[in-house]
Design goal:
Blueprint (H helix, E strand, L loop, with lengths): L1 E9 L13 E9 L2 E6 L10 E10 L10 H11 L1 E8 L7 E9 H5 L45 H8 L11 H8 L3 H14 L3 H14 L13 H13 L1 H17 L17 H20 L7 H17 L6 H20 L13 H18 L6 H4 L5 H7 L4 H15 L15 E10 L11 E9 L2 E5 L6 E6 L5 E4 L10 E5 L5 E4 L3 H14 L9 E2 L4 E2 L2 E2 L13 E2 L14 H14 L1 H16 L18 H32 L6
Antiparallel strand pairs: 1-4, 2-3, 2-5, 5-6, 7-8, 7-13, 8-9, 9-10, 11-12, 12-13, 14-17, 15-16
Helix pairs in contact: 4-5, 5-7, 5-17, 6-7, 6-10, 8-9, 9-12, 10-11, 11-12, 18-19
GO molecular function: GTPase activator activity; phospholipid binding; zinc ion binding
GO biological process, one term: intracellular signal transduction
InterPro entries: C2_dom, C2_domain_sf, PH-like_dom_sf, PH_domain, Ras_GTPase, RASA2_PH, RasGAP_CS, RasGAP_dom
Length: 671
């Protein structure tokens, strides 16, 4: 019998999972003819380069399957067949773990001496392949593999600063961010890392506003605002996918789950009706689903992320400025994104937005398609007018929409668009009234009273709107106390032990906490949920709070004597609308550098074109290589191009030095 240690030190360059760093762990197994011992490392959070530094010990003993051989022979034969296998996994928490790769090393290689080496992860071997390959069909794939070597952050300072200053460049077409999207053959390759980088540094809104203004210059009719695949629309699309995931979840997931788990027949196309289907019943079912989805959307403005509101605000006012004589263009500019490119797309493809785990079946998919069409129509400003309905390609959809009352839906859409295209700091006066959310009678604790006593708690009428939280002596009376919604820092339950009372919660704001007692636990939960939802956009929300009250000179929960002491428990509120995105700015900047490197020849041609235009201002008789590029200011564009090329050359040198250093120090594990 003998034993040997196996130390798992580190991994490098593990893949991203859903665009984020993974949560890796390793399983270490000693595999042989009659054994498969497995051990597991700890999970490392949010890293592609985990440092494990864990040692595992394995013993090789006599196997029961070799009873007729000597101890020496058993040991030698076992060693020849034993191997150490290390599997890398991403910890999925509540979902299935994802396999990242494996390595296999024969024990005989490790037996004689201490052995340390780097190994490349390999795909898992599949020993259960079906012999009937003809029955499996075929799948055609177009796979693009990219590998980025991310250097330390200081190497990217120049390129990062140049990109972040893009929104300040006049004209915007001369900026580094705009040039990046111009030279890339597929703008989608450039938009994703650019949007993520600008989001990470809070520079996306001014850039989107600048490129949207350029987009509107070329738009001649108000009814075609933001309908093409321009740089502005692609940036907004990508932003909504990144920022709006949780918004979609809280708004649409319950109703999407109902549609997918308890489907009702909704086909209204006479050609596609099945035998026995009743088109009138199907139309009622479809109307029920459409009403429910629409109602959830137009009531969801409170949950709309702050960043989306900021972008919609900019787009709305830019469109109104471009077409001052069209009173509806400010709404169609927003609805073209939030209804057509966000909610309607999520309804028809819920699995893409993680609203459902799998692609729905054919019948449910058809139902979702019809609902999505209806949402697009209801969300499009003025689409329910008779002239618009007559232009429908499908006559059955025209008949379906005749059952809708135009005024009710148009007013709901208008109010919703007003809400999601206004912000705390930029809310247009007169465009949106406060949304009434909840009201009712509860008890509030008076400030400066003793701990025990009936006079300590007084019955008051509470009212919550989208702008303020107030309480009144009686209903319909003037408010005694008002807290602006933007000043609320947290809303949490209060321990019963604080005042020997049940169903209590606290509203934390700039002054002393407001302690409130609801009439029952259900009412308390409803008020907490409503207050949490309306304050989710607040940028100064607390991360910690005190579960108990501050009485008699100390906090009852942690016994701290200073009233200003930071809370001792983490806040339990749901994910805020102002999301803290996990974005690796250096990784995104490296991707952008790679795109510039790939398109180096286009950068040089564009630089030459700017020089030619600066010298010769006459008419162009023949199309040039740069005729598809936007060059509004050749001097400013030339200046930016020169900066880009210089920065790319310096980064090339840094990459070459790093690769040489890495190749000289790395020791590969294979023989």
């Amino acid at each position: 019998c003998f034993s040997f240690p196996c130390r798992i030190k580190e991994c490098h360059g593990l893949p991203l999972i859903n665009g984020q760093n993974c949560d890796p762990y390793a399983t270490v197994s000693l595999v042989g003819p009659s054994r498969n011992d497995q051990k597991k490392t700890k999970v490392k959070k949010k890293t592609s380069n985990p440092q494990f530094n864990e040692t595992f010990y394995f013993e090789v003993t006599r196997s029961s399957s070799y009873t007729k051989k000597s101890q020496f022979q058993v040991e030698e034969e076992d060693i020849e067949k034993l191997e150490v296998r290390v599997d890398l996994w991403n910890n999925g928490n509540l979902v299935q773990d994802i396999f990242l790769g494996e390595i296999k090393v024969p024990v005989k290689v490790l037996r004689n001496d201490s052995f340390q080496a780097w190994y490349l992860l390999q795909p898992r071997e599949n020993g259960n392949k079906s012999s009937k390959t003809d029955d499996l069909g075929s799948l055609r794939l177009n796979i693009c593999y990219t590998e980025d070597c991310v250097l330390p952050s200081e190497y990217y300072a120049s390129l990062r600063n140049l990109l972040l200053k893009s929104s300040d460049v006049q004209p915007i077409s001369a900026s580094a961010a705009y040039i990046l999207c111009e030279v890339c053959r597929d703008k989608c390759d450039a938009v994703l890392p650019l949007v993520r980088l600008l989001l990470h540094h809070h520079k996306l809104v001014p850039f989107v506003a600048a490129v949207a203004e350029l987009d509107l210059k070329d738009t001649q009719e108000a009814n075609t605002v933001f309908r093409g695949n321009s740089l502005a629309t692609r940036c907004v699309d990508e932003m909504m996918k990144i920022v709006g995931k949780h918004y979609l979840k809280v708004t649409l997931k319950p109703v999407i789950d109902e549609i997918c788990e308890s489907p009702k027949p909704c086909e209204i196309d006479p050609i596609k009706l099945r035998e026995g289907d009743n088109v009138e019943i199907n139309m009622e079912n479809l109307r029920y689903y459409v009403d429910k989805v629409f109602r959830e959307i137009v009531r969801s403005s409170i949950s709309c992320p702050t960043l989306m509101c900021d972008v919609f605000y900019s787009l709305r006012h830019l469109a109104a400025k471009r077409f001052p004589n069209d009173p509806h263009v400010q709404y169609s500019a927003v609805s073209s994104f939030v209804f057509l490119r966000f909610f309607a797309v999520a309804v028809v493809s819920p699995h893409t937005f993680h609203l459902r785990p799998h692609h729905p079946d054919a019948q449910t998919s058809r139902t979702l398609t019809l609902i999505s069409k209806a949402i697009q129509t209801l969300g499009s400003w003025g689409s329910l007018t008779k002239s618009k309905l007559s232009s429908f390609k499908e006559t059955f959809m025209c008949e379906f929409f005749k059952t809708f009352q135009e005024e009710n839906f148009t007013e709901s859409v208008k109010k919703f668009l007003d809400d999601v295209s206004s912000t705390e700091s930029k809310e247009p006066s007169g465009l949106s009234e406060p949304v009434h959310l909840k009201e009712g009678e509860m008890y509030k604790r008076a400030q400066g009273r003793t701990r025990i006593g009936k006079k300590n708690f007084k019955k008051r009428w509470f009212c919550l709107t989208s702008r303020e939280f107030t309480y009144h002596k009686q209903q319909d009376k003037e408010p005694i106390f008002t807290i602006p919604i933007k000043n609320i820092l947290a809303v949490e339950k209060l321990d019963e032990s604080s005042f020997n009372k049940k169903n209590m919660f606290q509203v934390l704001h700039g002054e002393k906490p407001l302690y409130i007692q609801a009439n029952n636990c259900v009412e308390a939960s409803e008020w907490i949920e409503a207050l949490c939802r309306v304050t989710r956009c607040n940028q100064r929300r607390l991360s910690f709070y005190h579960p108990s009250a501050f009485l008699n000179g100390n906090w009852l929960c942690c016994k701290a004597t200073m009233e200003s002491t930071t809370g001792c428990a983490r806040c339990t509120a749901d994910v805020p609308a102002l999301l803290i995105l996990e974005i690796d700015g250096d990784r995104e900047t490296e991707r952008i550098y790679t795109l510039f490197t790939i398109n180096r020849s286009k950068l040089q041609k564009l630089e030459e074109a700017c020089g030619s235009i600066a010298v010769y201002q006459g008419p162009r008789k023949e199309p040039d290589d740069y005729s598809n590029f936007t060059i509004e200011d050749s001097v400013a564009t030339f200046h930016t191009l020169k900066q880009i090329i210089d920065i790319v050359e310096k980064l090339n040198e840094s990459h070459e030095k790093y690769q040489k250093k890495r190749s000289s120090s790395a020791k590969y594990g294979s023989e």
